[in-house]
Specification:
By secondary structure, this protein is α+β, with helices and mostly antiparallel strands. It has one domain. The chain is built from two helices and five strands; from the N terminus they run αβββββα. The chain has a five-stranded antiparallel beta sheet with strand order 1-2-3-4-5, covered by helices on one side.
C-alpha cells in the first residue's frame, strides 16, 4: 500500500471517532507516522505504517512511553475501531 497522507489520517479519524477529536500527526523517517488523538478527556497514540501495521494505546501512563503498544492492528481503520471500542461513549 502507498504511504498514507496526514490529510487521509485526519479524514479517517473524523469518520470513525468524530470530528471533535484533536489530531496531531508526525511523519517519521521511512514514511511511518505517529498520531496523537485527544478527545479532551482521553488521549490515544498510534504509531505505524500502512505496510507494517499500527500499534496503539489509550491513556498510557508517562512511564509507558516508548515501551511499545499493547494493541496492534493491520490497518489504520482497525486501530481506530479498537480505540473507539475503548473510549467511553
Amino acid at each position: 500500500m502507498a504511504d498514507i497522507t496526514e490529510k487521509q489520517v485526519r479524514v479517517r479519524v473524523a469518520e470513525i471517532l468524530g470530528d471533535a477529536v484533536h489530531v496531531a500527526v508526525e511523519r517519521l523517517p521511512g514514511g511511518a507516522m505517529s498520531v496523537t488523538l485527544d478527545t479532551g478527556t482521553h488521549t490515544a497514540t498510534l504509531d505505524g505504517h500502512p505496510d507494517s501495521g499500527w500499534g496503539w494505546s489509550v491513556d498510557e501512563g508517562e512511564d509507558e512511553g516508548y515501551s511499545g503498544h499493547a494493541n496492534t492492528a493491520a490497518t489504520l481503520d482497525a486501530a481506530l475501531d479498537g480505540i473507539r471500542g475503548i473510549l467511553p461513549s
